[in-house]
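User: Structure tokens for this complex, please. No commentary.
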Amino acid sequence: MNLLDLDDDSLSCLLHHLPIEDHMNFAKVCQRFHRIWEDYKCWIYKRMELGSTSDKGFKQELILLHHTADYVKNLIVNLNRKFEWNKIYMAKFLNMLKRMHTLERLILWLKDDEPYEVLETIIRTLEHLPNIKCIATYQDNEVVDILYQFDDYEDFLKESKMSRNPMIEPIYSHTKIRLLVLNNAPIKETLADLAQHSKRIKELSFRMTQKAEEYSPLAELPNLRVLQIFGHYGDDCPDLMPLVTALSSKLLHQLSSLTIHVPGLGYDETAEIIRIEGLQRLDCHFSELRCLELLKHLKVITYLFIRVAHTENIDNLVLTIIEHCPTLLVIQIDSPNLSRSIIPKALKVLQKLRNSKDQSPLRLMFGKNPVQLDADTREYLRVFW
Amino acid sequence: MAVIKLLTSDNVIIETEMDLIMCSGTIKGMLESCSGDDEIVPLPKVRSAILTKILQWAQFHRYEFADTTAEEEAENVCGVISPWDSDFINVDMSTLVELIEVANFLNIQRLLQLACKTAANMIAGKTSEDMRKILNIKNDLTFSEEAVMRKESK
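Assistant:
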């Protein structure tokens, strides 16, 4: 059989798999290929990625963009290129951007030392597009990344400019993911694209401003180790389950530190969290007392920070955690209801299970003031009350 | 385990386990719409040699068929080909084309994507002339069409 025996759908599928810098050559093979390229533009170029890092490849991509600009809804541009974006390229690119009326989402992968002026010129061009919903800029860096969300072009640019000024912020502070979200558009699709391209991000923190589910693509970040999630207090409890499930199923083997300061972390969510087997550091605000019952399953945990809004005594819950988590070094609880008698009880448990020569003493952080303990107890325990 | 009989274009009846062939959207649809138990499903567009090969692929991946929709599968074009798959798909051009055709007809998205990606890899980075050679396609463009396209790609 010959490829030309296939129907148009199958051939368009082949084209879809071809790197875009080869698409113009595909279109020039024969009449049928050319017609398929024309007919399926609307489908194939809905999402387009200018990713080539070579001068020649990028030139091809720009030529293709010239022919497809009317169809693109999602555009991902890699500005982190090995060659210079000279003025001609830039002018060409901006000219095309100007007429991309169907464009909804743009992701810009920036160089660490990208001048602010380049960024501003691109963003100002987008301002006039009628359908734009979300713009994201980022650097693929392994230092701490923060996901910032803006809903206004001016705020977005102002912050970008400020953090590019080395007098104000050191260079590594550039490594923020900035999202400009217009009319409260969903961000899930943009984050899914970002996660696919951010191969080096190890640490990420963000403040949740949309539904938790919108953030679930972040669980696809291939190298994420440390995640911090903050939320607005006073709002209704968000449904965290979709996000927590994504984290526990996708980051099961790699996440080592998790912070969730968002109301609404209940028993079911905690049951998901404890599935993350390598978790060494957990910092959470729990909404139910019985969440603490589950924490004993964290077998390699070293730092545990707990806040739980409750008035009942939690001595036994805390003792169970101490008993079952052999590597625990610090357990900190915000304004807990505990009785002083927990100290001798904890000591007893530790004397039975731990060897004070091999392991540093466990720190119980229940307040600010150090508690005076005798020398034997200090082998195993340090207490702040 | 439920078994199903498939009649191929070269008149061979191939018996296979029901859940194995459920990766095919087409057959799944056919079975949902017919009630009879012991029916033979005719596949007039599929040769037995190709069907056997496809079942071999389905057997290897049988526990991976996640509940992703066909649309999601089709979107997922940037995946890497696994060593087993790349060995499986290492066939001559004619067989590859037939696999694409049948995967498309049977609506087995993952196999279709695999086969198309393999074909795409063969022509990636090549000039139009080289693509023609590899795919054994004649240049039927007229002189003026070529001139227009040359202009297009500047």
